[in-house]
TrEMBL record:
Encoding gene, per UniProt annotation: RPL3_2
GO biological process: translation
Stated name of the protein: 60S ribosomal protein L3
Region (Disordered): 1-54
Entry keyword set: Ribonucleoprotein, Ribosomal protein
Provenance organism: Mortierella polycephala
Length: 209
């Protein structure tokens, strides 16, 4: 059987002419000898390269981070802040005694990686009041402070040097001329709002870099 197939191939190759329809017959006959069940060049399955948690890999939409969720507040405690701002400054390692009953390393020294978070002092620059609605919290009003530092104002501009630096100039005049509108907004927050949050910014200049 195999000898007859080889003889058939030789006859087809000998009768080959450019542009002749026999070229397709030669290709079909040669492809029949290939085994479709042969394994690929990989001996084992490969794992993924990188975590799926970092997808999609693209540029960040904003340079500074944004708090998208807040911890659950305990209303029984006095008024307090539920979170604070921090920046990842680096990583190092520590040697500590492990307190984990059942582990082989229980009451032994282990080396663990730790993250260093820089937490500059914060300044409150505004207050936002939220009212409860069937669709969730909705902001009622916002009250800003009279004196705002240049560090905060720079964050509202894409290019600080080319701007006119007039942010909050009219709002500051309300405090100096007549504080009644500001006090009225604060009274609205006290009367109607169920949740009150503060707007803060960090004082990075006080960090010893």
């Amino acid at each position: 059987m195999q000898a007859s197939r080889l003889k058939e191939k030789e006859e087809q190759r000998s009768t080959y002419r450019p542009g002749d329809s026999s070229t397709t017959i030669v290709k079909e006959t040669l492809c029949m000898d290939k085994n479709p069940n042969l394994p690929s060049h990989r001996k084992f399955e490969r794992p993924r390269h990188g975590s799926l948690g970092f997808l999609p890999r693209k540029r960040a939409s904003r340079h500074r981070g944004k708090a998208k969720a807040f911890p659950k507040d305990d209303a029984s405690k006095p008024v307090h802040l539920t979170a604070f701002l921090g920046y990842k400054a680096g990583m190092t390692h520590v040697v500590r005694d492990l307190d984990r009953p059942g582990s082989k390393m229980h009451k032994k020294e282990i080396v663990e990686a730790v993250t260093i978070i820089e937490t500059p002092p914060m300044v409150v620059v505004g207050v936002v009041g939220y009212v409860e609605t069937p669709r969730g919290l909705r902001s009622l009003t916002t009250v800003w402070a009279e004196h705002l530092s240049e560090e905060l104002k720079r964050r509202f501009y894409k290019n600080w040097y080319r701007s006119k630096k007039k942010a909050f100039t009219k709002y500051a005049k309300q405090h100096s001329n007549c504080a009644k509108p500001v006090l009225r907004e604060l009274e609205r927050i006290k009367k109607y709002c169920a949740v009150v949050r503060v707007i803060v910014h960090t004082q990075v200049r006080k960090v010893k870099l």
